[in-house]
């Protein structure tokens, strides 16, 4: 039986730009980086208050480029104060792609797009 979710893998075309985004815009931490036995470049990012990591994978040269389909999948992260988060990322040159929007439950959600087009949801839970 499965005992724990360890990581989620996302393929990208530009590993460095994607890692920079997750570090700067979301505050994730690069924990390790290496080449896989099949030649892919891998980077693992840790998420605050979670054991799960995000694995970013750039395939070797010559591989088919990644084409992220709209609304295929997204990662969601909790934030304490969405307005403060938005101000902090704007100071770093990033901006929200959608929202903030108040949901029926009173939570506030917004989205920011990663370099490859993957969507990242930010959720400020209702108090």
Overview of the molecule:
With 127 residues, the protein is α/β, with parallel strands linked by helices. The chain folds into 2 domains: 1-60, 2,3-Dihydroxybiphenyl 1,2-Dioxygenase, domain 1 (Roll), CATH 3.10.180; 72-127, 2,3-Dihydroxybiphenyl 1,2-Dioxygenase, domain 1 (Roll), CATH 3.10.180.10. 17% of the residues lie in helices and 37% in strands. It is built from 2 helices and 8 strands, in the order βαββββαβββ. The strands form 2 sheets. A 4-stranded mixed β-sheet has the order 1-4-3-2, covered by helices on one side. The chain has a 4-stranded mixed β-sheet with strand order 5-8-7-6, with no helix packed on it. The longest helix has 12 residues, at 15-26. The relative contact order is 0.20.
């Amino acid at each position: 039986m499965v005992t724990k979710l360890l990581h989620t893998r996302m393929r990208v075309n530009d590993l460095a730009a994607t890692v920079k985004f997750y570090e700067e815009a979301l505050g994730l931490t690069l924990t390790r980086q290496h080449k896989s036995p099949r030649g892919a470049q891998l980077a693992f990012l840790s998420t605050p208050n979670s054991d799960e990591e995000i694995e970013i994978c750039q395939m070797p040269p010559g591989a088919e480029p990644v084409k992220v389909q709209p609304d295929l999948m997204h990662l969601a992260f909790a934030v304490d104060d969405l307005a403060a988060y938005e101000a902090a990322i704007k100071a770093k040159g990033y901006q929200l792609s959608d929202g903030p929007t108040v949901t029926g439950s009173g939570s506030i959600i917004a989205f920011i797009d990663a370099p490859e087009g993957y969507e990242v949801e930010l959720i400020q839970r209702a108090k």
